[in-house]
Amino acid sequence: AQDARTLRGATSGRPPIVEALWTWLTQSFDALVTKLGAKTAPGLPAIANGFCSEADAARVEAFFEGKKDVIPSGLEHNLRGTLEGIRQCALFRATFEAPIVKWLSR
Predict the structure, then answer these.
(1) CA–CA separation, 55 and 65 (whole Å)
(2) How does DSSP classify residue 1?
(3) Fewest C-beta atoms under 10 Å: which of 30, 72, 85, 104?
(4) DSSP codes of every residue in 29-76
(5) Angle, CA of 25, 42 and 14, to the nearest 5°
(6) How far apart are CA 7 and CA 57, in angstroms?
(7) What is the DSSP-derived secondary structure letter of residue 98?
(8) How far apart are CA 106 and CA 17, in angstroms?
(9) Are 22 and 54 in contact (CB under 8 A)?
(10) CA–CA distance, 87 with 16 (Å, rounded to integer)
């Protein structure tokens, strides 16, 4: 269980790491839910916290939608928070990325 928290924290917003962990999660989800149990498994959506686009949010949402039969109680709440964070990041990026890049290139 502690290892799952370590994995979530290890992404640090680095896209290649976030993508690799997401691939691992999607391939291992059912086994992870069983292994981690009802107390820790609801935190699994946090592995996607490093994503930052609407397409990523849609992908995460679709994956968990297809896993309703094995989702432990509490995961829905954490998923909503993760999706909100991804969408906020995407909005921030769309709003401020170009002005920040322009300012930094001066």
Answers:
(1) 15
(2) -
(3) 104
(4) HHHHHHHHHHHHGGGGGGGGGG--SHHHHHHHHHHHHTTTTTPPTTHH
(5) 45
(6) 19
(7) H
(8) 31
(9) no
(10) 19
Instruction: Estimate to the nearest angstrom the gap between the alpha carbon of 87 and the chain centroid.
Output: 11
Q: What letter represents residue 18's amino acid?
A: V
For residue 45, give the nearest of 76, 24, 14 by alpha carbon: 76
For the entire predicted model, the pTM comes to 0.83
Spatial separation of the C-alpha atoms in residues 33 and 18, rounded to whole Å: 19
CB atoms < 10 A from the CB of 41, how many? 23
CA separation for the pair 14, 35 (Å, rounded): 26
pLDDT tens sequence across 45-96: 988 988 999 999 999 999 999 988 888 888 899 999 999 999 999 999 999 8
Task: Name residue, tokens 């959506």.
Answer: 45
Which two structure tokens, joined as six digits, stand for 64? 């968990």
Please state, rounded to an integer, the average pLDDT across all residues of the chain. Answer: 87
The total number of residues shown for the chain amounts to 106
